[in-house]
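Format notes (please read before filing issues)

Several people have asked whether sequences and structure tokens are stored in separate files. They are not. Every record keeps both together, in the order shown below: the sequence lines, then the token lines. Line labels are part of the format and must not be stripped during preprocessing.
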Amino acid sequence: MASTALAWLVFLVAAPAPTLAIQGAAVDALYVGGEHPELWVSATAQGTRRLARFDARDLAPRGVAPVPMGALFVDACPLPGAKGDQVVLQDAAGVTDVEGDRLVLGRSLFTVPDAGALYVADLCGKAGAARGELRALVVEGVIVKGPGPARMLALSHQARAYSGRVHRGLRPERGYDAALSLYAPRLHDVDVDGDGDLDLALVHEGRLTVFRRDADALAETPVVSRDLAGAVGAGDDADLRVRLADVEGDPRVEAIVGVTRGAIPERSQAFVVGGEQRTPFATARPLWQREGLAAPLGVRGRELVVAEVDTSLVSLSGVLLTGKVPVRVRVGEGAPLSLSAKADVRAGRMDGAMPVVSVDFDGDGTADLLDLGEPARAALHLGSAGGFALDPVTVWEVPSFIHVVPMPALPGVALIGAPKGGVTKLAVLRLTTGAARRRAP
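Then the structure lines:
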């Protein structure tokens, strides 16, 4: 018995995470699959932009590729006929590959491209008829290029820019998987009408726009343009977190809309916005109304993964003494996993991060939970049938980070630190084979 206890004691001691030192100010990390998978890191140094390449399996350096300073974002795309993923860039005139070949022509989303901008999104379709379909967000809408010529999908939107650093407050929509300096529509390939084809849905500033796919082609005008904030009666001062998932058990997705107000919300609401095949997202029904912060982090099957923070006066007065706010994460109505996050109540911000729940570290088919509540610590709780394991299977020491990049395909998570002395530290968190065997009970 004593030896077992000693084994667990040794097991839970935090080990330094594998860390890379990148020359320059790194702004993004990217997993590029294929026969020889790589990790690409975008960094700016001495007025030039580069993509530093590393072997995704052992982090051995593979080289450096130059990138034009006007590029707005990079993404890995499974282009038809290509071996593995291809890296593409969007600049002021459309989309190119890293060799500079123009793939899509179109006006830039921004009139003045930000040389240090970060934009992480699904630039390409990943499955079904949408696979390999390139998308370019531009002022007039969305340029889509499949096997044929590029087409424009009309969409009225106003993108805006902000600092791009991780927002440390409790406002749920400014989460760590969405720390963008270019805040533009987010693209989702989902089936909204139950016909088996992946339609294109865009979420931006509380508005949901859907282009229906029929006979492997997207309609050029939207079939849905829904003000989600108005549909749920949220008002102009509300913060919305929108997730698209099938929670009703039919073949169509619904919009799960979480609503909070203020940096430290007193109460939270959530709604399901759904409808019929001919009228998707036409009706809204309440899902919950709870005290404190309750925000959907993700979806597992038909159940939501929800983070709950007690923001009552009694709870927050305790935070003044401990410097930590309690966080509970549950899957559906399952038992919660109790965590904590470092917080500054007086400043109304969270110095730790909300958990990442979108990566299956051990490859068993169930997404796990990466606890990032402490700025210098990361703990992995494996997913289970009803939620997450009580005890972490691995604990890492990590550098203080400003960006979190979930990479489900690796699988793993990259933590990008603040540049210091011309160098950026990047930690890559993956589950080793030995740690996977020591599954927590």
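For reference, the curators noted about this record: Residues 1-11, 161-182, 437-441 have pLDDT under 50 and may be disordered. The CA atoms of residues 84 and 411 lie 16 Å apart.
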